[in-house]
Amino acid sequence: MDWVDAGDYQLSLDGACGAPTLRLGPELESNLALPLNYNTAAPKCCHIGVHLHCFYMKECEQILESLYSSFPPLDLIVTTDTLAKKAAIEFFLCKYINAPWSQRLEVIVIANLGRNVIPFLREGMKFLKSCTLALHLHTKRSPQHKNYGAEWLDTLLQDLIGNTRRVNAIINQFEENPNLGLVMPRSRELVKHEINWGANFDIASMLVQSIWPSQKLDKMAPMVFPAGMMFWFKPKAMEPLVGAPQALCSIPIEPILDDGTALHAIERLIVHCCEISGMNWALLNYANNSDLETDIVDNTSDRKISVWQPEQEAYMQGIANLFISHGKLRLGLDEISRERDQIAQHRDSLEKSLEHTQQQYQLQLQAIVEHRDSLEKSLEHTQQQYQLQLQAIVEHRDSLEKSLEHTQQQYQLQLQAIVEHRDSLEKSLTEREGELIAIRSSLTWRMITKFKHIIHRFISSE
């Protein structure tokens, strides 16, 4: 559900457990923003410290680059959870020549416990105690917010640091306002939905009773906290929260829930802590590209807002607007219900049509299957006939082959007999020819002899 207007505030059940959350409206946020004058000179002598908790190395290098390019001399403490990461961080730090953190630097390995909150309260506050002004940062990646996690970190760094002129303007505001204890970015639109108690109100209430017994959280009080857990502060303003880890029965271990833990509750008590210390807080206006190139003097009002003080009138106005919103929502739901009924009727009609179509399809499919079975039977019969015909052809072929083989054998025998008869005839002919020659020779000799005798007798008769 969207936030509804409640005077200068906004109210919604979004993310709430048990009660709506009251947050600052856009105009009131703008009025509470810190006036930054980019024309002011560099800040005077101011002991600045920075706590940076590093879990992700890529984001660590990005933050160190921002500090290097925009900050005056500072004390820097870096906390991380492994010796390997410590070595990588020290390597990153060594790359910078004349770095602003050269005056005092510590890199500490601690247990991976309590995200950036517990390292800040235990090690960061101890280190920053001697500083007059400090900045808390961490390598925010927000894996649960994959769609905008990287953009969230970029906008936080832009709003909190931006460039040298913006850093100088913020430091000068702290110097000019001794009672200013906390400055945090206005929540961007992409994370506005995070500004609520969520599942953390009861946990925060128990924590308040433990560390600040005289105070009591009120659900009707406005919810203001540095979403993303990065902010400028004076160490005195955060001192009342240092005892929070000791007040916890146990610190959540990884992996922790996305909401409803002591760490989320502590994050929502940052502004409460500042007010407990007796100091004031303010917001930082968005630092877009044009902001970083021009001088900014924001208009602010003298109105003071307390996160401890219930805004009953605004809260009840928001409740009334919620009822109106719910009424409109109900009308919308009724319209949706009617449309849903129409859709249901149309769906039923489509289902009936689909059922009829399916029946027709089944009948057609059945006819196709029967026709297929008939074709298969016909094919099977044809194949059987073909096999019988093929078998008959094969048998006939075998019979012809046998007949041909027999005929060839008979032919061979006849041919052999003919050849033998021819040979016999040729032999007989040869013998007859010899006899004929002998007879011819004998006749010739006789005839010659007789002819000689006739001639002789003829001669003798002469």
Order of strands side by side in the largest beta sheet?
6-5-4-7-9-8-10
- Count of the separate structural domains: 2
User: How many β-strand runs?
Assistant: 10
* The CATH topology of the largest domain: Spore Coat Polysaccharide Biosynthesis Protein SpsA, Chain A
Q: List segments where confidence is low: pLDDT < 50 over at least 5 consecutive residues.
A: 290-300
Number of helices: 12
Mean pLDDT: 88
Amount of helix? 40-55%
**Helix and strand succession?**
EEEHEHEHEHEHHEHEHHHHEH
Detailed description of the structure:
The chain has 462 residues and is of the alpha/beta class. The chain folds into two domains: 4-308, Spore Coat Polysaccharide Biosynthesis Protein SpsA, Chain A (Alpha-Beta Complex), CATH 3.90.550; 311-428. Helix content is 54%, strand content 11%. It has helices at 26-31, 57-70, 83-94, 117-128, 149-160, 164-176, 201-211, 235-238, 244-247, 262-267, 270-276, 312-461, and strands at residues 4-6, 9-12, 21-24, 48-53, 75-80, 104-109, 133-138, 180-185, 231-233, 280-284. The protein has a seven-stranded mixed beta sheet with strand order 6-5-4-7-9-8-10, with helices on both faces. Strand 5, helix 3 (83-94) and strand 6 (104-109) form a beta-alpha-beta unit. The longest helix is centred in the last third of the chain and has 150 residues, at 312-461.
